[in-house]
Amino acid sequence: MKTGSRLASQSLLLSAVLSLCVCTLSPEQIDPVLYEEKLLWVSGAQGEVSTYRIPLLTFTSKGSLLAFSEARKSTASDEGAKFLAMRRSIDKGATWSPTTFIVDDGTKPDGLNLGSVVVDEEVGSVILVYSLCFHLYQCHPSSTMMVESMDDGLSWSPPRNLSVQLGVKNFAPGPGFGIQKRYNPAKGRLVVCGHGTLEGDGVFCILSDDHGRNWYNGAALKSIPYNQRKQPQDFNPDECQPVEMTDGSIVINVRNQNNYHCRCRIVVRSRDGGLSLPVDDLFFDYELVDPAVAAGALQKDGVLYFTNPSNEQHRVNLTLRWSLTDGNSWVKEAVQIWAGPSGYSSITSLNSGSPEDRKYIFVIYEKGHRDYDETVSFAKIHLFGGR
């Protein structure tokens, strides 16, 4: 396993060589290396924020890079008041704007929880979907909320409550990104998937066919027993990341909350644009060892990438894996991004079609030395950097 010590940024000469050698390389020649890394947020070090957690990352349709996180005001707990924090980069992560707080939930005892970011390429919007009062801790009912930017992340709409359309339910999107379908069926549809409460858990998707103006409930893969207290090893799918494959199906990589069947990931597929998640298309990916955590997944140029803290028991060893077979098998090699405490992660890339942008993916993840929630870090990965 390679380690993050192989930083390509240590050598300007290496950078120049890498810029010349990718156009003719094929997916079989992928050999990732950690190219550069930056800390975006440090917990306990900035003003009114105790802890930064739940990082999201996306490129806009104009090529800006947006990073989001929960800025937890007074505690590291999932409950409590928060800001929704954002930083923006217009040079693919080389430099970043100062932190802005685009949503402030005030002093709610059970504040906002991120969330999924979805980019609508057809209209150029960026949509953030998040929950409010999800845990029902001195706060109810739970609401599914949305904010939207039409100017590349520079300004955001007031929060909009989607529960008017979806009904009142406990729905926690992601965390990660939602998708806009690029292929049929339902080309252009926005799909955001998430989970329910621990008792009423499962994978649930919400859908929009009109660029986020109206939303409706789609697929549901419910826990067993549903809406009842769980025991260890009960079937309890939880946080999830959907990825559209080139055949138009949606593959959802899922946290296995109660370690049902294995200490690994659940994978389920929708073939109808997010309307259903049949158990016939569900399997357990034994190669993706997991301590029950939110993980990153991305499909780029026919290759499926995956990040998680690869350990059965602990949130340590943030690892990048990749598959040339749509996730049916994984390349034996793997890249260790960080050996120490590491938690949630998300992956993105810029699909401009240019040879330069084909070379990179970008990872945002929770990183620490003693605890995984000490910082949020941004990593740029050169996919062919080991060659």
Number of strands: 25
Q: What would the principal axes of the Cα set say about the shape? A: globular
Radius of gyration: 19 Å
| Helicity, as a percent range | under 10%
Mean pLDDT: 94
Distance from first to last alpha carbon: 15 Å
Strand content: 35-45%
Low-pLDDT residue intervals, each spanning 5 or more residues: 3-22
Counting helices, strands and paired strands, the structural category is mainly beta
Number of helices: 3
Largest sheet: number of strands, sense, barrel closure: 7 strands, antiparallel
Task: Give a description of the structure.
The structure is a single chain. By secondary structure, the protein is mainly beta. It is 4% helix and 44% strand. It has three helices and 25 strands. The protein has helices spanning 12-18, 163-166, 355-358; strands spanning 33-42, 51-59, 65-72, 82-89, 100-104, 112-120, 125-132, 143-149, 160-161, 172-173, 176-177, 179-180, 190-195, 202-208, 216-222, 237-244, 250-256, 264-270, 282-289, 296-300, 303-309, 316-323, 335-348, 360-367, 375-382. The longest helix is centred in the N-terminal third of the chain and has 7 residues, at 12-18. It is globular.
Name its key features:
disordered N terminus, mainly beta, 3 helices, 387 residues
Which helices and strands occur, and which strands form pairs?
Elements: H1 12-18, E1 33-42, E2 51-59, E3 65-72, E4 82-89, E5 100-104, E6 112-120, E7 125-132, E8 143-149, E9 160-161, H2 163-166, E10 172-173, E11 176-177, E12 179-180, E13 190-195, E14 202-208, E15 216-222, E16 237-244, E17 250-256, E18 264-270, E19 282-289, E20 296-300, E21 303-309, E22 316-323, E23 335-348, H3 355-358, E24 360-367, E25 375-382
Parallel strand pairs: 6-11
Antiparallel strand pairs: 1-25, 2-3, 3-4, 4-5, 6-7, 7-8, 8-9, 10-13, 12-13, 13-14, 14-15, 16-17, 17-18, 18-19, 20-21, 21-22, 22-23, 23-24, 24-25
